[in-house]
Specification:
The chain is an alpha+beta fold. The chain has helices at residues 56-62, 78-81, 142-148, 188-197, 205-219, 224-238; strands spanning 32-35, 40-43, 71-75, 89-106, 117-137, 154-161, 167-174, 199-200, 203-204. The chain has a single domain (67-238), classed as Hypothetical upf0131 protein ytfp.
Length: 239
């Protein structure tokens, strides 16, 4: 798989370290690994300390975009309903092999370092279809987006499918299981309780979940994980 604009490709399932001069992340020093099914390169984090995982520099070194006129961005979480950046075009879209899970901790938006909330990331799931919203944006928009998604999210190019059946390469932000803010799975009841009591600089964690569920319903997306969690959170808020 070749990263668009990088002039460099990687064999799916292969692995390497930054001591190899691959030219993709010239300023990043640390171990790398690939997502086996997709051949995607992701950086691993050397320390699992909350808020020690600012990914801005890594993302900007991994995929410089200033040679492009525009870039497609795939949103699957708050990027669907909270569009605080200029766009050139938007269309519903989907990606294959991924599904949403509320397994990422939020120390900077919907929680605090002492009491993190939970937000969505993507987990590999062969054959799954993740529906969301795609935005065509100018490359300089990613200065803002990289800051917004800095708490553990790394971006990479992946194929997007649009409703009419045509395809394009787009960037997606994913927080992998080795990033310090990753919380992982938990019983649905426990996640709902954590979300219902969490607040951060961007607002309540409950609003995040309920707004996402509403946005996905408007898209006609089938996502039982999000809908069940939203129902549980809503019940807790009413009691």
């Amino acid at each position: 798989m070749e990263a668009p604009g990088s002039g460099w490709s990687v064999r799916p399932g292969s692995s390497l370290t930054s001591s190899v001069n691959c030219g993709l992340w010239p300023s990043f020093r640390g171990p790398l690994f690939t997502i086996p099914q997709h051949g995607i390169i992701i950086a691993s984090f050397p320390a699992r300390t909350a808020m020690a995982n600012n990914t801005i520099d890594i993302n900007q070194a991994a995929h410089p975009l200033d040679h492009l006129d525009s870039v497609w961005l795939f949103g699957y979480g708050s990027l669907i309903y909270k569009v605080d950046f200029p766009i050139l075009e938007r269309q519903p879209a989907s990606i294959r092999g991924w599904e949403r899970r509320f397994w990422q901790g939020s120390h900077d938006h919907r929680g605090t370092p002492e009491a993190p909330g939970r937000v969505v990331t993507l987990i590999e799931s062969p054959g799954a279809i993740c529906q969301g919203m795609a935005y065509r944006v100018s490359p300089n928009t990613f200065a803002h987006l990289d800051h917004r998604e800095k708490n553990g999210y790394l971006r990479f190019f992946t194929p997007l499918t649009f409703p009419e059946g045509h395809h394009a390469e787009g960037l997606v932000y994913v927080a992998g299981p080795d990033n310090p803010a990753f919380l992982g799975p938990a019983p649905m009841a426990d996640m709902a309780e954590q979300i219902a009591r969490s607040h951060g600089p961007s607002g309540s964690n409950a609003d995040y979940v309920l707004s996402l569920a509403e946005a996905l319903e408007e898209l006609g997306a089938d996502d039982r994980h999000v809908y069940e969690l939203a129902e549980r959170v809503d019940e807790l808020l009413k009691n």
